[in-house]
Automatic annotation (TrEMBL):
Taxonomic source organism: Gluconacetobacter tumulisoli
Recorded name of the encoding gene: cpaB
Protein name: Flp pilus assembly protein CpaB
One protein family per Pfam: SAF
InterPro entries from the UniProt entry: Pilus_assmbl_Flp-typ_CpaB, RcpC_dom, SAF
Lineage: Bacteria, Pseudomonadati, Pseudomonadota, Alphaproteobacteria, Acetobacterales
Domain SAF: 41-105
Amino acid sequence: MIFRLVFFVLMAVGLGGFGVVAWIATRPPPAPAQIVPATVQVLASARPLEGGILLKPEDITSLRLPRGKEGEGTAPDTAEERQALVGAMLLHSLGGGAVLRASDLLHSGDRGFLAAALKPGMRAVTIGVDAITGTAGLIWPGDHVDLILTQIFAAGTLPPDRHVAAETVLSNVRVIAIDQRLVQGATSEKEQQARTVTLEVSPMQAERVSVATHLGRLSLAVRAAQSATLPEDVPQAAWAGDVSATLRAGDAPGAPGSVVIYQGSTDGKEFHF
């Protein structure tokens, strides 16, 4: 009796094991796991770019490539790398979506940058600016600007509506450098304030800038991108009376006057009014 019971138990276990093996054998094999290739994001041209231009933020985009296929001299897409590329000169033309490599660029701190960035016959002049006269750090290398001179004349030498005057000294000139590095997006307050802006000018314009620096306050006005290719505007001065209707009408208090009265051979006596 016991042997019969053991026999049936062994048979049941054997049949159960056989059934499990058969069930496993009839199942389809599992789908192979999909291997996602590793990729990197590198900086590339956002649109077709001409050789000789100075890169602006809108010229730079990101491109995803398989890791190991990006080649040498590429820059990863980080805020620091983007900042380093802005203002660099493109040595030759590139199509849109082309990877930006170190061999394609000449940076403002590199030796020979100014000589390479200047057009034939042009000169580079540098002016001092502050957070206001430098348009609050919103100028980029490659932008076109107007250089405006503001003068304040001594009271008494001119009528009140002629005490202050502003005029465009240079029109439609290209910015080729800001300090020795780009300041936009810098991390510290000191780096955010540009101290100097270098402009591309003709020899005669360079002389005008040299004189203007001794006459008054210089400031920059950024031109629209569409107007950067237009010829220079005819400089016209704006006087205080052109801006203030009060000064133009003569209602503003004038500068105190004086008169000297001489009696005989005595020294003159000055009266103020």
